[in-house]
Amino acid sequence: MTAETKGKIGPTDRAGGGIPSEIVRRAEGYRADIARFLRDIVAIPSPSCQEGRVVDRILEEMRRAGFDEVYRDEVGNAVGRVGSGPTIIMYDGHIDTVGIGDPTAWAYDPFQGKVEDGRVYGLGTVDEKGAVAAMVYGGKVLKELGLDKDYTLYVVGTVQEEDCDGFAAGRFVEHLKARTGRRPDLAVLGEPTDLQIYRGHRGRCEMKVVVKGRACHGSAPERGDNAVYKMGQVLEGIQRLAPRLKDDPFLGRGSIAVTRIESKSGSLNVVPDECAIVIDRRMTWGETPQSSLDEVRAIVAGLGEPDPPGKGPRVGAAGAEVALLEYDTKSHTGHPTRMPKEYPTWVTAEDHPAVVAGLRAAEELFGARPPLGKWVFSTDGVALAGVHGIPTIGYAPGNEVLAHTVREFVTEDQLVKAAAFYAWFPSVAADELAKRR
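The structure corresponding to this sequence follows.
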């Protein structure tokens, strides 16, 4: 870029209408740099709890971009700050990825960051290293233009989202509160939205059901009590429950899916005395982890007379147990994590300043308001909005249907537009929040 284009915009210019076009022009000027940076971080494998090297690379780019403060927090998130104004805005983009699965299923090296026909291919390009690359360059553009006076922006590359959505994002909020006495006024998620504004999704919980039986020799099964057959009754009850779950006009219907089943027996000719399933429960508005547990416990209770109240998670004379799973591990910095696998449902109101600012910023930059939508899957919003009550939206490059697939790619055009949005949104958001105060 030329010396002329690197000049800062003054206070009077910030009140005018020329800033969005200048932001778009500068973001376009960084097209190759954004793609290069994305290729660099795609090339670094970063499964959950092993993100250390990619954090190093992101912090390096934040320093080059001129961020005011750059550091790794205690759980290992990559944190960059721009500005020191009164409104606090958080950009959240997780930097861990799922595994590649069968390497022969990929038509290209998932870690190469192949560029072809304006697309960057590779694991994490959509979910969601592409958004992180655009966020860093959005911070660079707004810093160059002197737009960082009315707000403080934190760009956070969060860890462990694929393992435990919301854990690291929530820890950053707690860390920020302890460090500054403040928490974000609003947040933007980098989960793929295809450059639409998303404002919520269903919550989820993971639970395990264990049914006990009585072992015996497989040659005389009538002498025992087959736990697998008992679990079959539970499975039938779950199938009957699914169409009766609550529905919501925005989020849609809750869902329930059995994702794993296993039994225990002494050998292949012993009737199993235990069978267990894992359930993925997606909760729409009005559903909670407790209500979801209660529904499954009611099914299990049908296997026998219920135990007296207050006996804990064991339900029914059949000796079944229904309980939430726990997440228990350490981050790449060694920070311990232990929490139940429950992730609240959340929605940000359509007329909230965060949503209004998102629509307005996109329209001022690109001439049209994007559609509003929601994610089908879960995000760090379960902690930011669901637990901490921080108004949250999503805007990011990439189509969510490509996430967790061997076809994953993001276009350079969307990366550039996302960078421009990330550069302009904080100014618009600070303005919209000020109107409500």
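The chain has two domains: 11-201+345-436, 203-328.
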